[in-house]
Amino acid sequence: MTIKIRAAVAGLALMGTAVSAQTTIEMTTAFGQNLPILGTAAVDFTNRLNAISNDVEIERYDPGKLVPTLEALDAVANGSVDAAYATTGYWQGKLNTASLFAAVPFGPEAGEFLGWILYDDGAKYWQQMYDDAGYNVHAIPCGVIAPETSGWFKNEINTVEDLKGLNMRFFGLGAKVMDKLGVSTSLLAAGDIFPALERGAIDATEFSMPRIDARLGFHKIAKFNYFPGWHQPSTLFELLVNGDVWADLDETQQAQIETACLATITTNLAEGEATNYAAMVDNVENNGVTIKRWSPEMLDAFEGAWTEVVGELSADDPFFQEVWADLQDYREGYKTWSTIYLPRN
Question: Which residues are the signal sequence here (predicted)?
Answer without folding.
Answer: 1-21
